Structure formats: C-alpha cells, structure tokens
Description:
This protein is mainly α. The chain is 71% helix and 2% strand. The strands form 2 sheets. It has a two-stranded antiparallel ribbon. Strands 3-4 form a two-stranded antiparallel ribbon.
Amino acid sequence: MAVKYDEKVITDIFWEGDRLLTKQRYNEAIEKFLKVIELAENTSYPYISGAYTNLAKATFESGDPEELDQSEIEIALNYIRKALQIKPSNQSAKSLAIPLLVLQREFSSAIEYFLELTVDKLINHSIYYLKWMEQPAMRGEESIKKAVPAIEKLYQKYKQKNPTFGKLMADAYLAVGKTLKTYETYQEMLHNFSGVPLVYLATCINYSLFCCGPLKNPKEAKRIVEEGITIYRNQTASFQNQNEHLYELLKSNLGMVYVSLHEYEEAVKILEPMVTVNPRNTNLHNIAYAFYRLGDFEKALKYCNKALYISKDDLSLFVKAEILYSKQLYEEALIHYKKSMAFIDDGNNNLEFVDGNNDSVFSFSWDQDQGRRKIYVGTINCYIALNDYLSAKAFVQLGLQEWPYEDELIRMDKNIDALMEHRSAQEDIQTKMETLLNELKELKDTHKNEMNEVREWASKLLKLQSRCTKKEEIILESEEDWRAILRQMHEVALAMKEANKNPDLDYNKIKENFKKEFPKLNSDSLEFLSTGEYLYQIHQEGEIDFAPVMVEYSKVIETELNQLLKTHKLIKRNQSLTLGQIKYHLQKVKMGVLPNIDEFLDELITYRNGSAHTGKSTKIKVRYIRDMILNAGWLKLILT
Length: 640
C-alpha cells in the first residue's frame, strides 16, 4: 500500500528551495531540500531524485569548486548516487557527477557519466569540467594513466565533432609512453580540422612542441610551425587581430625549434624583437641559451637574469653558473650549479610554465641526463678552483655512481687524487658524499614551490623597463615622465608584496616599528617605507630585479621633502614635485636646515634612475640607499 503524502506541500517546499538555489542562498536551499526528502521518504513523490540532485548542486556551488575538500565532494557524490538510485535516467545528476569525480581524480568514472549524457545543453556544460583533466594529463599523473582506455572512448566519439579532447588524448598517450599513438593523434587532428583555422593553428602549436620534445624531431616541428605561420598570414585582418596570441606562440615555438636545430643565430633573430616587446619567460629562457651557445656570455647573462626574474629553471641557472665560472666567480658559480641541480626535472626535454593567463607555455630545455652530467662537472671544477678537493672528490664519486663509465669523471677522479696532498680516508669521502647529498635534497625541498612558478609582476616590470630604455639608454625626457613610470613601479611593488606572503615576516609588524621610530612620518611615506623594507628582507636570497624596492625607498624621501617644502610654504599645498624637481627647487631656496642635501639627492636620483634598466637595481645598491635613509640619518633629518 502506497504511503500517503501531501504532494502540493512538498512541491511548494521543493520550488522554494529551487528559487533559493538560483539566488545562491545555498544553506537555506539545503534546508528546504532536506525537508522535501524527509517528507517524501518512502513515497512515490516524483521530485525526490531532483531534491537529492539539488542538494549535491548546492554543496558543490556553495564555495569555490576547485577548493572543495574531499569530505564535501564525497557528501555531494553520495547525494548524486541516491538521486541515480531513485531515477537512473537523471541526466542532471550524471552531469553534476562529472566535476565532482574529476576533482577526485576519478577520471574514468567521470567520462562514463559524460558518455551517458544525451542532452546537448548538459553535454556542452560538462565539457568545461572535463577540460580540468588537461593539466593532470600534461603532467602525466598516475590518475590519467589509469584513465587512458576511457579517454580513448571519449576521443573516438568526439574526435571529428569537437577538438577539445584531441590534446587530452595526445597527452594521455604520452603519459603512458605511447609516442607513436601521440603522433597519430596529432596527425588525425590536423586532418579532421584542416578547414578550421583556429583549431588547426592551436594543434600546430601543440604538435610542434611534441615534435621538439618527446618525438625528438625538430625538423618536423619546423615544418609544421612554418605551415602554421603561413596559414595565419593568409587569414583575414579581423582573424589576425583576434588571434594574434596564436601567431606569437607559433613564432615562440619557431625560436625553440631553431635552438633544437642548433641554429642559434636564427633563434636570436626571431626571439630578440619578441622579448623586447613582450618579455615572456619561455622566450627569454631560449634566447639566453642561444647566446650562451654562440659564446656571447654577456648577452646570455643579461637574458638569463631576465628569465630568472620571471621564473627559475634549471637551464637558466646552469647557463648563469657557466658564465660566472668563466668570470672566475667560483663561489657564486657553485651556488648556481647547485640550484640548477635542485631544479632539474629528470626525464623531460622541455619546461612547462603557467603564464599570467593560466595558459601552459613551454620552453626548450636540454637532454636532462646530459644536463645533470654538465652540472656535476661544473660543480667539481668549482670545488677544485676553490681548493676544496675533498668536496670535489666526493662529487666525482657521486657522479660515478650514476655514470660509472663516464670518461671525463674518471679522468677528473685521477686528477683530483694528484692535486690532494694526501689521500683522504674513504670514510671521510663517504661522509662528505652524504653531506653533499643532504645539501642537495634540502635545496630541492627549499625551492620545490618555486619550480616553474611564473612571477607575473616580474613580467610587468620588464615590459615597463623596456618602454623606458632604447639600446640601454633611458629615453624618459622629463621628470613628469618619471612620475608616470614611478607610479607604475609602485604598483609592481604592491603586486610583489601580495605575491610573496612569508609566514616568518610580518608586514604589519614592520609598519608598526617604523611608526614608533618615525612618529612624524607621512602615512604615504610609511606605506612606501614598510613595503620597501618588507620586499628588501623577503628577497635577501632571491634572483630578482630590485628596481621596485629602490623606488619604494626613494618615494619615502620624495614624499617627505614635498611635505617639508609645503610646511615652509615654499610650494603650494596641492603641488607634488618629483625628486629632480625638488633638487632644483632646493638649489634656488638654499635651505640651511638640510646641509649637503644636493649630494644626497644626486646619489638618490642616480640610483632611482637605475630602476629603468633591467637588473641595474641590485640588492647591494638598495642596501646602500636604505642605509643612507635609515642609518645615516637622512630621513630623521628631513623629519626634524
């Protein structure tokens, strides 16, 4: 006998919950749907499967979907399972299961539900969530490897209708070592979408990266990139304007291809104009390597530094180490060789970065095994140059464990024995080997979160500096030009501060201490000084351009001198002068309360102007200006 229930009452509650869900009032909506389930339990109420589905939806949408913890995901999935138990044909429940299962890395189950969808709206909506599989596939995660059979079904069904799953299929095959299958997938995509320029160009970009890397066929990569460039140039002006980023990626890949083919002059020719306009880390990385191979160490170092400002990687660190070694700066070279060892990612022939638009971009790297050998040799040579033969011997022994028949290491082992005054006991060498291995492990752990992390603020800084200089000369014509540039530098400094949260350093505490030390400090000056000090302290060991930090310190003096001139009624209250204008003004009025201010301002302006040049504002220069402001008493003198 059927259980009696008041269908109208339950339905009213259901639709009230639906309205609350639409308004994103999730907790109230959850209460309503739980009430529906309570009243309709063990009945034939038609919307009970929908109530469970909406419970899952409210749980899923109540926070950032990508930040849901596993317990919340499991609660939502249990609601989905109950909804489908009651009504196996519930398309909305199946669609909602897809993002939840993807978040759990249950890719095969997510694809199974997707393949059961028949409603176009739900299919198109769910494709967005299946795209979340792209990053795990590119990284070759174990969860993707397990899902290859399911991804094959997905690709076979949609390969001629929707290009979304082609790249996913190619990366999944690559993850399980099926290079030929990856090649065939890209060939199919090029054939299936030959008449769709947008898709074809995107495929050319991805395929050329694959050719340069795992396929080890840069000639094929060159052919497909040049074909893509020709297709782009044959499109309408409107298409080109809307998709210029694809053209930039094709040219970037062509630069990478030239590096792979050892055509370094061609690489420089195509990449140098690109990095002047848009200093992307991948192009900076490649041009640095090209100059290194051409023997132009100064330019290689210049671009290495720029690349490292944006993102650290093993090859840029290695090239910088090699250049430092050639300059006989052995201690600095040793530091960079070891960092390169910490950053190296075994088995890959390219580097993956995520740029400011959350797009994955790649850079040519090197044969990782060969690269590790070069780093070992460089490290050993540094230890020899520093007369630390025990460490050199230990590093040779570590190298011979990996490459027992490497002739260069065997020769170095014998040479080090000859250099040592007496042979160290074997246990001393073993102890040193363990110490060095521990040091490398600690270094790798320390920098783990920095690997391939792109500093978006550094990219903005490089673009800003490229507008200030031409052929290494500053092209700013007036102090008003400087005013605009320094305002943007300050914005970069604030972005740096937001991007570098350090649990061991409290910005507010720094600000509070300065407020006590300089109670008369203007509120804007306090912000400049606190930001500069925070960034100075947090980047003591960093590979960064200190230009924004230099600007923050200089802005403190600029702001306080403006305040002083207003107090003495030498400028109007609504006036605001730059440092150059202040210096000119002070020369006219000859303020006796500030002896030697001209010399101080000359130095400060010179160092401030250096911020327009990439890499000219160093930690040492910032420390000098900081000491003049805080320790030599200039700030106190201006305030009193």
